Amino acid sequence: MRIALDAMGGDFAPREAVLGGVQAAEARPDHTVVLVGDRAAVEKELAGMSAVPSNIEIVHASQVVGMDEKPVDAIRKKPDNSILVGMKLVAMKKADAMISAGNTGAMAAAATILLKPIPGVRRVGIAISAPSATGHCILIDVGANLNCKPSHLCQYGVMGSILSKALYDIEKPRVGIISIGEEDTKGNTLVKDASALLGAAPVNFCGNAEGRDIFNGQFDVVVCDGFTGNAVLKAIEGYGEMLADVLRKAIFRDVWGRLSFNLMRPVLLNLERRVDFAEYGGGLLAGVDGGVIILHGRSNAKAVATGILRAMNCVRTNVNGSIAEALKDMPGAADKE
User: Whole-prediction pTM value?
Assistant: First the structure.
């Protein structure tokens, strides 16, 4: 495989992006990591390393999309930006996937413009993994499609189920839809209409999911519109940061906390690993014909490497082929206007 990495994207690029690319290349010497970005800046980072794997390549891109730039404007005014150059590699089949911790909107826009949707897909969605009591829960969509129709949510259930099987080897992932109560009478028209479609879809649909069900192990896949999903994602991040700060202050508040820290260290490290976004490989832009992984803007080298390995896994398990096959056999679903 050849995985294109935006070496200039993210708050800590190019240092952490390049380091993450090297770590992934070392972990999978049978595949190639293509660092896309300013050649001089990338080579400077590589020069500071003790050794550079032979399966690292550089493709030059002279421009960078800023995190605060409007996606469409940036793509139009900066045709040689690292996101667009990397996405072109995927479009031309010179790379199997594209990864970036840069401007999320630019990634989605570039993928929409350059990569064809998988046959049958009505709207793409961003799928992330969240930790749950029994392992992991796929949440889709978290920001790509703010104005969903019932058929979009139904397809998210299908794509999320396929992704859950590929990443976590779950034979029949339990699929739910975000609502304000577990009873099937709860929810707005969108939720009720989408539930009817999911009930007839080739997934293990288990009904309504409340927000807490993302984490308690009741579901393996939870679908929602992009507006709701993004709000949930940001709430998770904020609560996690607050909880970590409270815990840190409680431990180091007095001498007893500091003395007991060494005893608690293994437990705390395990907890940190369970909630650290760097462990989960970013979000997959599901529904486009080519692997596209969108990383957190604050991604460190570990998060970048994990994202690359996730992309390799999605390519290896042919997630896109499975999505196309599943949607081909689904009857058309007309949305109510």
Answer: 0.87
